[in-house]
Design goal:
The protein contains ten helices and 14 strands. It is an alpha/beta fold and 300 residues long.
Length: 300
């Protein structure tokens, strides 16, 4: 039970390559205090400029919440990243090169001291999505949850009683499914945006720029309908054993491709029913706010 205001609130910050979005979160309800604030970040800049932009955004979020100070800040951060020690390991991808190996907590502490921030925790962005949906979103009533984010890649999070599970026999290594084998390749290739583009090109010989373009053709194009039927069938084929192994109550889907759930969901649910997989399937309720709420929930 959260007993006082200093324990009741935490900042959740979602770090992207070109932006930060943060908000103060009430950990008793999962609700955001005030409006989330977004800020631009030049990921090619020096460490001082990047950290300064993050600190400015977090200070503004604390001020906007109406609280005088917030002691704890959780970060949803893309990998590779040393989440235990708060050290970015990203390099060779044209972003955050200048903060490689930097102790983020030590660097941010003097910048945020006047706003009360003194404790920092870090989590993978897909895991943060899972935690957020469990605290205040689509899976807030569930005990054991698997979350998949379907977009430029396939992210995953396994949650039991609102705590991440990243090791043990019930989950793949680190709780990551993207690298698991599937269909002669890996999951990331099969169910990402580039996988959908590739499938459509194989069916039609035409190259589109994104999954949204394929979805827009669903009503008029038999190839698009076939693609999403196969996508749903194969996603269920992959996810079924993962869900069973974790004994999940709920599967939450997020990411841009999940917005096409009405197109591939019926095939997925038919395959689950045929395979005896009795898991509720839900799409994200929090959308872009999920990772912020999940990052804050690291302090529960």
């Amino acid at each position: 039970m959260i007993s006082n205001d200093m324990e009741r609130y935490a900042v959740g910050a979602d770090i992207g390559g070109s932006h930060i979005c943060s908000a103060v979160v009430d950990l008793t309800t999962g609700e955001i205090c005030g409006e989330p604030l977004s800020g631009k970040v030049d990921c090619d800049a020096g460490a001082g400029e990047i950290l300064g932009a993050w600190a400015d955004n977090i200070r503004q979020s604390i001020a906007a919440s109406g609280l005088k100070a917030v002691r704890r800040v959780g970060f949803a951060f893309p990998g590779p990243f040393d989440y235990e020690h708060g050290v970015s390991l990203i390099r060779g991808v044209n972003k955050f090169e200048r903060i490689y190996g930097l102790d983020i907590s030590e660097s941010l502490f003097p910048l945020l001291r006047r706003s009360g921030a003194e404790e920092f925790r870090y989590v993978n962005d897909a895991s943060a999505f899972a935690l957020g949906e469990c605290l205040g979103g689509a899976a807030c009533d569930a005990r054991r949850v698997v979350a998949l984010t379907l977009g430029t890649g396939v992210g995953s999070g396994f949650v039991s009683d609102r705590k991440l599970v990243t090791s043990g026999d019930e989950v793949p290594a680190d709780g990551w499914v993207y690298c698991l084998p599937f269909g002669g390749g890996i999951v990331d290739e099969a169910f990402s945006t580039r996988g959908i583009i590739r499938r459509y090109e194989e069916l039609t010989g035409e190259t589109l720029t994104g999954a949204r373009d394929v979805a827009a053709r669903y009503d008029a194009d038999p190839a698009a309908r076939r693609l999403f039927d196969v996508y749903g069938e194969e996603l269920a084929q992959f996810a079924g054993p993962v869900l069973t192994r974790f004994n999940a109550d709920v599967l939450v889907l997020g990411g841009n491709i999940s917005r096409a759930y009405p197109l591939f969901g019926p095939a997925l649910e038919r395959r689950f029913a045929a395979d005896g997989i009795r898991v509720a399937v839900r799409t994200s309720a929090l959308l872009d706010h999920a990772a912020m709420i999940g990052a804050a929930s690291l302090f529960l």
